[in-house]
Each structure stands twice: as C-alpha cells, then as structure tokens.
Amino acid sequence: MAYSRSLYLQLSALLLTGFASANLAYKSRPDLAVPVLNITIPATNETDPGLIFYTPESTYADNTGHGPAQSGPYIYTDKGELVWSGFGFVGPRSENFQVHTYRGKQVLSIFEGSHNSPMGHGHGHTAIFDDSYQLLKEIKGGGHRLADQHEFLFFDDHSALHTVYEPEIRDLTAYGATSENQSWILDNKIQKVDTDTNRVLWEWSSLDHVDPAGTNLTLQSGNAGLGVNSSQVWHYFYMNAFDVDAKTNKYLLSARSMCTIFKMDGDTGEIIWRLGGKDSDFELGDGVDFCWQHDTRMHEKYLHHESKGSKEIISFFDNSAHENLAGGPILQSRPYSAGKVVELDTKKKTAKLIAEFRAPGGSLR
Ligand SMILES: *[C@@H]1O[C@H](CO)[C@@H](O)[C@H](O)[C@H]1NC(C)=O
Ligand SMILES: *[C@@H]1O[C@H](CO)[C@@H](O)[C@H](O)[C@H]1NC(C)=O
Ligand SMILES: *[C@@H]1O[C@H](CO)[C@@H](O)[C@H](O)[C@H]1NC(C)=O
Ligand SMILES: *[C@@H]1O[C@H](CO)[C@@H](O)[C@H](O)[C@H]1NC(C)=O
Ligand SMILES: *[C@@H]1O[C@H](CO)[C@@H](O)[C@H](O)[C@H]1NC(C)=O
Predict the structure, then answer these.
(1) Distance from residue 40's CA to the centre of ligand 5 (Å)
(2) Which residue(s) pair with 160 in the sheet?
(3) Ligand 3 pocket residue status of 179, Cβ below 6 Å
(4) How far apart are the C-alpha atoms of 42 and 146, rounded to whole Å?
(5) Contacts (Cβ under 8 Å, ≥6 apart) of 337
(6) Is 257 exposed, middle or buried (0-12, 13-18, 19+ CB in 10 A)?
(7) Which region among 19-28, 90-99, 131-140, 195-204 has the lowest average model confidence (pLDDT)?
(8) Is it the case that residue 160 has pLDDT exceeding 50?
(9) Are 145 and 166 spatial neighbours (Cβ–Cβ below 8 Å)?
(10) H/E element holding 339?
(11) Interval 5-24 mean pLDDT
(12) Which of 33, 135, 223, 282 has the fewest CB within 10 Å, making it most exposed?
C-alpha cells in the first residue's frame, strides 16, 4: 500500500513537474502535497504500537529540492500511511508536536513561531488542538516573554511548562570575554504558566543556579555563540529538554552545552545532582558517557518497588556530536549517536547503562 503510493507520487512528480504544491496523492484533497516516508525497516509485531509525529521544514523556497513543498505537523502510521496533514493549521515553522492528556482528554500540542538560526532556538508559543483537530487554545510565554520550541509539558490541568530563552547583558570577563561587546549570555528559563490566562505561576532561571564556568562550550571557543548581541548570544547552558515529576515537584534538565543532566528541586530551585560534564556527582559506568544530548526523560514507573528511593531510571539521546559554530569540523565525543537508558543509584552515586539503541549503520545525528 505504502509502496504503491510512493510509486504513484513518483509518477505524479514526473507528470506535474512545474507545479509547486499539489501532487494528487489524495483525490479528495488535490491541494495537499504530502511528504512520502520511505520506510526502509518496517515495523513488526514486536515493535511498540504507535503513530509517527513529525514536523518537516521547508527552509528553502518550493521546487529547490530541499524540504517538503508543504511544511507543517504530520501524523503517519508506522507503515507510512498519512493520518493527518496539519499543513496550514499553524504558521510555516512548527516544532515539538506531541500528544498529552489535558483535563481528561487527549490533545495535541504544536509549537509555532520563528527560529533563530544558527543558534537553534525558537520564539513563539504552543497551539493546543483537541481530538477533532480543532484549535482549543494557545499557550504563550508570560511576563512579556516568547516561549522557545524545545519543551512543552502540562504540569496539571491548570498549568503548563515551557522553555524560555532570555538574553541578558552581564560582565563576562571572568569567562574569557575579550571586549566589552562580548557581554550577552542566554539565561535558560522554565516557565510555569496558567493555561487559561498565560500568567506566570513559577519560573526557574539557569543563571541563578548554574555557573557558566562549568560549560563544555566556552565563550572563547565561539561554539555556543560569540556573545556579541542578543541573537549571537552565548548559549552556555542550552536547556533542550526537561521532564517533571509533578507529585514531588522534581525536574530533570538536559543542558546540552554542559554535556550534563541535572536533577532540580522545583520548590527551592536548587540543583540536587549533576550527571556528566565537568562536575558530575556520579561515577559513570561503561557506555554512560555522553555529550550534546537531547530528550531526557524520567522513567521512575519502571523501577522495582523495593529499590525505589535510591534508584532512578532515566533515558536520553546521546548525540555525541555538535555542529561547530566557529566554522571548524563537527565536534564529536563518540563515533556514533545512541539512545540510552541509565540506572542511577543516588546513594552510591553510580550510573549504569542498562540499554543502548544505536541507529542502523551507527551514524552521528
Ligand atoms: C528508499 O530508501 C532506500 C534506501 O536508502 C532506497 O534504496 C530506495 O530507492 C528508496 N525508495 C524510494 C521510493 O525513494
Ligand atoms: C511475530 O511474528 C513472527 C512471524 O510471524 C512470529 O514468529 C512471532 O512469534 C511473532 N511474535 C510475537 C511477539 O507475536
Ligand atoms: C562594539 O560595539 C560598538 C558599538 O555597537 C561597535 O562600534 C564596535 O565596532 C564593536 N566592537 C567590536 C570589537 O565588535
Ligand atoms: C549579531 O552579531 C553577529 C555576529 O557578529 C552578526 O552577524 C549579526 O548581524 C548581529 N546581529 C545583530 C542584530 O546585530
Ligand atoms: C566536557 O568537559 C569535561 C570536563 O572538562 C571533559 O572531561 C569532557 O571531555 C568534555 N566533553 C567533551 C565531549 O568535550
């Protein structure tokens, strides 16, 4: 089925060369030009069931061969069949397309806004759609701030959490600034906002709790921004993911530029422990070592009941690679990227790799 559709699209492309958008893949929706997924390793009966969510981007104009003709949020089955095209539902740049439970119902969240390239962060808000794909509400940054695209979670039925990146002017001579112009640093915030009013209920600031001296991407290296203005700002922390245990109000943060995962107390804002990077509180077992990671998640529900308390299970994606913003070769800490599941013993301060998932072919992402 998927294959015959791919074939049909190839034929259509041949037949329709010169037309910018529609590709007639769906007779009832000739306006849609749906990106075709080429599934090279099909899902089996042993694959966890689920749908594929993604937000392909057109960074170039149509018909240049880069990106889809119609960027937006899409849902597919794991066989590559289209479930939903969100083209035109949100602005041209969409990100972080997720499913949540909110007020007892399944909802979709989609970040929409603009993208600061090459620094890689967003300025926008999150649109929430109900289970009939109707816009329910837009959740915005509070306190006259724009939300970033990296993380969005509901804390409960009345509040949501998102990342906010706030450029600030500070004296950075202690971190190697060579001119007074090198004074812009990016504060990474988690904002908890009221989902009805967008009022800020709580906020956490990386600069209040984590010294930039611990970063792996120093100001001098230029690899996390030059710090010369509010867009070329020094991204010393780069919080690209967080997770929360709403019952205990504890957070797990991924700081990409610091190659560190932090546990943080939401009541006091204090750091509880650090895994990886320059000041790890844990001894890292074989294969745990990581850098420039994404997608940190808590998996306390997988713990054996009797070991709860001192043991925690987390997962993350260890990219082991970072684009060299200063123009050199890609920074690399391992020859391949991998998803990792790690068991932490928070008393003995040990970290053990319990599962690793490498991309077929062992490539870097
Ligand atoms: C799908 O990908 C495989 C492996 O890269 C390639 O050989 C094949 O030609 C692709 N198929 C289509 C329809 O693009
Ligand atoms: C999956 O399918 C294969 C081949 O049909 C079969 O041998 C296997 O037992 C199945 N596994 C499960 C978990 O159903
Ligand atoms: C610093 O900023 C000033 C004013 O914006 C500008 O004139 C000067 O060229 C800048 N210096 C450097 C070293 O970038
Ligand atoms: C910020 O600095 C970068 C690097 O020097 C420069 O390319 C860019 O134009 C500047 N942006 C603004 C808004 O001044
Ligand atoms: C990050 O910094 C720590 C401490 O300097 C160092 O041990 C580690 O090798 C660095 N990682 C990378 C990938 O640069």
Answers:
(1) 36
(2) 154, 193
(3) yes
(4) 39
(5) 317, 318, 319, 320, 321, 358, 359, 363, 364, 365
(6) buried
(7) 19-28
(8) yes
(9) yes
(10) strand 338-345
(11) 34
(12) 135
40 lines ligand 1 (CB under 6 A): yes
Radius of gyration of the chain (CA): 22
At 160, list the tokens. 């949501």
Whether ligand 2 lies within 6 angstroms of the CB of 286 is answered as no
| Structure confidence at residue 1 (pLDDT) | 24
Q: How confident is the model at residue 6 (pLDDT cuts 50, 70, 90)?
A: very low
Q: Verify whether ligand 1 is closer than 6 Å to residue 8 (CB atom).
A: no
Which atom of ligand 3 is least distant from the CA of 180?
1
Q: Which two tokens mark 35?
A: 């990106």
Let me know: does 227 contact 292? Beta carbons within 8 Å. Answer: no
CA distance 331 to 325: 10
- State the Cα–Cα distance between residues 208 and 201, nearest whole angstrom: 18
Name the percent of the chain lying above pLDDT 70.
89
Alpha helices in 301-363 (DSSP H): none
Pocket test for ligand 3, best of 181, 229, 232 (most atoms within 8 A of CB): 181
Residue with the bigger pLDDT between 131 and 325: it is 131
Token output for 121: 């962060």
d(CA 34, CA 269) in angstroms, rounded, equals 44
Q: Which atom of ligand 2 is nearest to the CA of 45?
A: 1
Pick left, alpha or beta for residue 269 (phi over 0 → left; psi -120 to 50 → alpha; otherwise beta): left
Residue 229 Cβ < 6 Å to ligand 4: yes
Count CB atoms within 10 A of the CB of residue 322. 21
Q: Kindly state the tokens that stand for 219.
A: 């100001």
Give φ, ψ of 5 to 5 degrees.
Answer: -70, -40
Asked if the peptide bond before residue 118 counts as cis, ω within 30 degrees of 0, the response is: yes
**Which of 317, 297, 308, 312 is CA-nearest to residue 352?**
312
Residue 167 predicted with pLDDT over 50: yes
The answer to whether the CB of 340 falls within 8 A of the CB of 353 is yes
For residue 258, the ligand 5 atom closest to its alpha carbon is: 1
Single-letter amino acid code for the residue at 51: L
Residue 252 neighbours by CB under 8 Å, 6+ apart: 242, 243, 244, 261, 262, 263, 264, 296, 297, 298, 314
Rounded to whole angstroms, how far apart are CA atoms 55 and 92? 10
pTM (2 d.p.): 0.89
Q: Measuring from atom 12 of ligand 4, which residue has the nearest CA?
A: 229
